[in-house]
Design brief:
The protein has two domains: 142 residues, Aspartate Aminotransferase, domain 1, CATH 3.90.1150; 268 residues, Type I PLP-dependent aspartate aminotransferase-like (Major domain) (Aspartate Aminotransferase, domain 2, 3-Layer(aba) Sandwich), CATH 3.40.640.10. 39% of the residues lie in helices and 17% in strands. The chain binds 4'-deoxy-4'-aminopyridoxal-5'-phosphate (PMP). The site of 4'-deoxy-4'-aminopyridoxal-5'-phosphate (PMP) has 14 residues, from helix 4. Belongs to the class-III pyridoxal-phosphate-dependent aminotransferase family.
């Protein structure tokens, strides 16, 4: 037990961070770490960016905070316009928040208020995937399919219907296409059994992020879910808190699949670790219906403040100026090849999957049977500690409800160059060895 008044979660004492620059951090003892996971998949531009600092200081010198009911502020308007443009105008309206959980919470409440406003108050349930993670506030936790987090709140979280998504690593169907077909048929049956007329929205990540170790969906599955939402008259909410803002090589991951949501959440990479900023993007008719029926009964004090939005604008500008989407695609190909080469040597790297610079490795005790390591072995924690000893930060997760093996994410900043990517792979190789 430490004497610090801070409490986050149980675990070993941590070294104190000293400073950071680019894709590297140093601790108080002078140890160097390559940031192979962008903090928590947030520091997408790396550390110590003077361009972001300068934009923030310029805004601080003008005004740091104004409240949204008292003044409009230019950075908020400009950032909202920029985000709409990133969706090619498909989602026309923007609501700012300060975190991913708040973004999901806001999307759920907006979707519910839309149906109340349009005379369908009987719609009061959400559908989401198990496993999944959508945030820690009660509403966002309600759609999260991750048993250890749900357990103390089971009465609340059981109000949502949680269905399995496709699992291209473990399925035993004839091929991927028939697997997707079966999963979609089972999803339809689960919704029909639960009453389609009671569903507000389907909530999911276009690429499973932290909760699944980058478990992939595919175009057919997402098209199938979009079609189910349209048929049942509910909304599609894509959670791009982790996958958005360039992480997968497109501005938003849904753009790989050509399936457009009704609402989209984003956060982490938008502030890039420099300031908390998140957003909900929504189709105009949804927002209009809510606004015409008395407004969106929801909001947070720091939402859309000038400093947050100036930071977000500077981040988007940097991604454009430095052509980082192209960098993500190029470095992503090398990262994929590097991880797969390691997998060939270390067979307990059961599955390597991902997109752009979002890669997950699932660890298994037996690659033939795909049997996970026993949860008590905490292989994810062991792997993370070994990588840290080698000067590499990766993002770990515990075995999920016994559904899958331990996994870790490799998600370096979008700015990583060829040389640092080789250093990342070399340090990972040493940790695995
Ligand atoms: N949704 C997804 C997909 C996430 O990965 C996360 C954070 N890991 C959240 C929501 C919650 O975001 P935050 O931690 O900023 O509240």
């Amino acid at each position: 037990m430490t004497t610090s008044p801070l409490f986050y979660q149980a675990g070993p004492a941590l070294p104190e961070v000293s400073h950071a620059d680019g894709v590297y951090l140093w601790d108080e003892h002078g140890n160097e770490y390559l940031d192979g996971c962008s903090g928590a998949i947030a520091c997408n531009l790396g550390h110590g960016r003077t361009d972001i600092r300068d934009a923030m200081v310029a805004q601080l010198d003008r005004v740091a905070f104004t409240y949204r009911t008292q003044f409009e502020n230019a950075p908020a308007v400009a950032l909202a316009e920029a985000l709409v443009e990133l969706t090619d105008g498909a989602l026309e309206k923007v609501f700012f928040v300060s975190s991913g959980s708040e973004a999901v919470e806001s999307a759920l409440k907006l979707a519910r208020q839309y149906f109340v406003a349009t005379g369908q108050p009987q719609r009061r349930r959400f559908v989401s995937l198990r496993p999944s993670y959508h945030g820690s506030t009660l509403g966002a936790l309600g759609v999260t399919g991750y048993q250890p987090l749900e357990a103390p709140f089971a009465d609340i979280t059981s109000a949502s219907l949680k269905v399995p998504g496709p699992d291209f690593y473990r399925h035993t169907d004839a091929d991927d296409a028939s697997h997707v077909e079966r999963v979609l048929a089972e999803t339809r049956a689960a919704i029909e059994a639960a009453d389609p007329g009671a569903i507000i929205a389907f909530v999911l990540e276009p690429v499973g992020g932290a909760s699944t170790g980058a478990r992939m969906l595919d175009r057919r599955y997402l098209e199938g879910i979009r079609a189910l939402c349209d048929e049942f008259g509910c909304l599609l909410i894509l959670d791009e808190v982790l996958t958005g803002i360039g992480r997968t090589g497109t501005w938003f991951a849904y753009q790989h699949y050509g399936v457009t949501p009704d609402l989209l959440t984003t956060a982490k990479g938008l502030g890039a670790g420099y300031y908390p900023v998140g957003a909900v993007l929504a189709r105009e008719h949804i927002v209009n219906a809510v606004m015409e029926s008395g407004g969106f009964q929801h909001g947070h004090t720091y939402a859309g403040n000038p400093l947050a939005c100036a930071t977000g604008l500077a981040v988007l500008e940097a991604i454009r100026r430095e052509r980082l989407l192209a960098n993500v695609a190029e470095r992503g190909r090398r990262l994929e090849a590097g991880l797969k080469a390691l997998q060939a040597r270390f067979p307990w790297m059961g599955d390597v999957r991902g997109l752009g610079l979002l890669w997950g490795v699932e660890l298994v005790a037996d690659p033939r049977t795909r049997t996970p390591f026993p949860a008590a072995e905490n292989q994810f924690a062991r792997m993370t500690a070994l990588a840290k000893e080698e000067g590499l930060l990766i993002y770990p997760r515990r075995t999920l409800d016994g559904l899958a093996g331990d996994h870790f994410l490799v998600t370096p900043p979008l700015t990583i160059d060829a040389q640092d990517l080789e250093i990342l792979l070399a340090r990972l190789e040493r940790a695995l060895t």
